[in-house]
Design a protein that fits this description.
Organism: Halomonas mongoliensis
Largest sheet: 4 strands, antiparallel
Protein name: Antibiotic biosynthesis monooxygenase
Keywords: Monooxygenase, Oxidoreductase
GO molecular function: monooxygenase activity
Low-confidence stretches: none
Structural class: alpha+beta
InterPro entries: ABM_dom (IPR007138), Dimeric_a/b-barrel (IPR011008)
Shape: globular
Strand order of the largest sheet: 2-3-1-4
Radius of gyration: 13 Å
Number of strands: 4
Number of helices: 3
Mean pLDDT: 94
Length: 96
């Protein structure tokens, strides 16, 4: 199991539009093979800063989704609403 952490900064005033686009992106990922779950968070006191945390079966499943036509399509709605490129980090459980 891996977790993908995605940080996004939204253009001021476009938060509602972003929420709709991000919900659609999450809906699409629900059908992706290897998708386990996810959540979307807003930074306290900073409505332009968002954090997506998604869980995937393995790195291959994430890469399949990341390069998929479906993700590309939904991200066409999300990316224009951002002030900078999204930052993606991949985490795995420690081996203790």
């Amino acid at each position: 199991m891996i977790k993908i952490i995605i940080e996004r900064r939204i253009m001021p005033g476009l938060e509602q539009e972003y929420e709709e686009a991000a919900r659609e992106a999450m809906r699409q990922s629900l059908g992706a093979r290897g998708f386990v779950g996810g959540e979307s968070l807003v930074e306290l006191g900073h409505s332009d800063r968002r954090l997506m945390i998604t869980k995937w079966r393995d790195l291959r499943a994430w890469k399949e989704w990341y390069t998929s036509e479906e993700r590309s399509r939904v991200m066409q709605r999300v990316l224009p609403l951002l002030t900078e490129e999204e930052r993606i980090r991949i985490y795995e459980p420690t081996t203790h």
